[in-house]
Design goal:
Elements lengths: L10 H7 L9 H66 L3
């Protein structure tokens, strides 16, 4: 069966995490509980992954905005330097 191919946590570890199943001798219900536990873990990890992806997208957007702001500042600085050249030449004149 395909469920036997699932990478489940070891039985001992599962029983430590879910002590209510320690007295369960029914193999099928124990396997069902382990599979449900694995599903819950995977869903929690997927939710965490989705949250991290949203954070990543937000950071990428923020970085792009800051990069654009810096590029604009660089352009403004060049314009300012070019505009200041006549004033600089005036001060360099010797009287």
């Amino acid at each position: 069966h395909q469920y036997q191919q699932l990478p489940l946590i070891p039985l001992g570890e599962f029983l430590e995490l879910q002590p209510e199943h320690k007295d369960n001798n029914d193999e099928k219900s124990l396997m069902f509980a382990r599979i449900n536990h694995e599903l819950a873990e995977r869903e929690a990890l997927e939710e965490q992954r989705q949250g991290l992806l949203k954070t990543k997208q937000s950071l990428i957007t923020d970085n792009k905005k800051r990069k654009d702001d810096l590029a604009s500042l660089d352009k403004d600085l060049e314009t300012f330097i070019d505009a200041a050249k006549p004033i600089q030449k005036l001060f360099e004149k010797q009287y």
